[in-house]
Amino acid sequence: MSRPLGGQIQTVLGAVAPDAIGITLPHEHLLIDFKVMFAEPAAAADKARTREPVSLANLGWVRQNFNANLDNLRLQDEQVAQDEILLFKQAGGRTVVDPTPTTIGRDPRALARIARATGLNVVMGAGYYVAASHPPDMDRRTVDALAREMIADVASGVGDTGIRAGLIGEIGTTYPWTDNEQKVLRAAVIAQRETGAPLMVHPGRHPAMPMELAKLVQKEGGDLRRTIMCHLCRTIADVRAVIDLAQTGIWLEYDLFGMENSFYPYNPSFDMPNDGGRMAHVLALVAAGHRDQILLSHDIAYKTSLVKYGGYGYHHLLVNVVPRLRAKGVDDAGLHRLLVENPARAFAFA
Questions:
Q1: What is the largest CA-CA distance in the chain?
Q2: Which of 128, 208, 258, 291 is the most interior residue, by most CB within 10 Å?
Q3: Residue 6 has what pLDDT?
């Protein structure tokens, strides 16, 4: 199979033109097995809760300790995924990017079925997440072999499915990051260069990490204007540091809309902002001249985020956040840029 024509966006059902993608969620997980992030709770009284199904009885506790319940870390029901993402479609959405990496539940055939059943464009990722999720032989894998695997996922499809990835990522890093994580990112940059696909990076949880990653991508010959830095709202509290990062030309992704808990189990010393804090950063970036680099999403990866389980759902950005942005002075043209034009440029092949 040939690579997509420059300027097109590659979905699991084939390439589409940028003007066909409409309102886009640039970072969501429709299906994921996130048990790699599980952490046993410290309190003896809470240990029994780790294996309970998510229910109304434990919802408050699971929301607060979202990585301490195994059921919460698994989105594996295709029908639920369809029902939930249709709420986004009914609110005006057209495209969803699912960057679930290899080894934590990426399922090309299931994503294709969801795309057909819902009529939505679904874009799939390629590559590897953080070191804890790497395959056992990662120490022995070379940069070249990893790059070839990612290139094949984009150019000819995953395995024998014929279903092609439309981006490299999300490539996972921790802080401090491991040798294997560096190796995977170097391979991902080669794959970006070879295929023309966008690159998406999950930064380790330290405010200096996004800039460190941007510098490595640049040093390895990657294109920062075609690279997306995820999860900025849980990584950098000072918007001035995000403005510094923006000077590199990289895409700035605020992708945890809907997560209103200030307690962040993965980094308890960091106070997670709420949607008001995220909007304040977005508005500051717009005011600083970086409106063309911003992407907005929810990064849903837990049952407690789904409407079926008492959560806010994939449509939260459209039904709850957009009216607030409009009230804060973002006009229709500005909203169209954030929700349609920016993703269309970010995910188009070079």
A1: 57
A2: 128
A3: 84
Alpha helices in 209-341 (DSSP H): 209-219, 239-246, 275-287, 316, 322-327, 332-336
Identify the DSSP state of 23. Answer: E
CA angle (207, 217, 183) in 5-degree steps: 95
Beta strands in the chain (DSSP E): 9-11, 14-16, 23-25, 32-33, 74-75, 93-98, 121-124, 168-172, 199-202, 227-229, 251-254, 294-296
Q: For residue range 171-183, what is the model confidence (pLDDT) as tens digits?
A: 999 999 999 999 9
Structure tokens, 325: 């942005």
CATH of domain 11-35+77-346: 3.20.20.140
Spatial distance between the Cα atoms of 335 and 296, rounded to a whole number of angstroms: 11
Map out the domains of the chain as residue ranges: 11-35+77-346
* Model pLDDT for residues 317-331, shown as the tens digit of each residue: 999 999 999 999 999
Cα 37 to Cα 48, 68, 69, 130, 178, distances in angstroms: 18, 9, 10, 10, 17
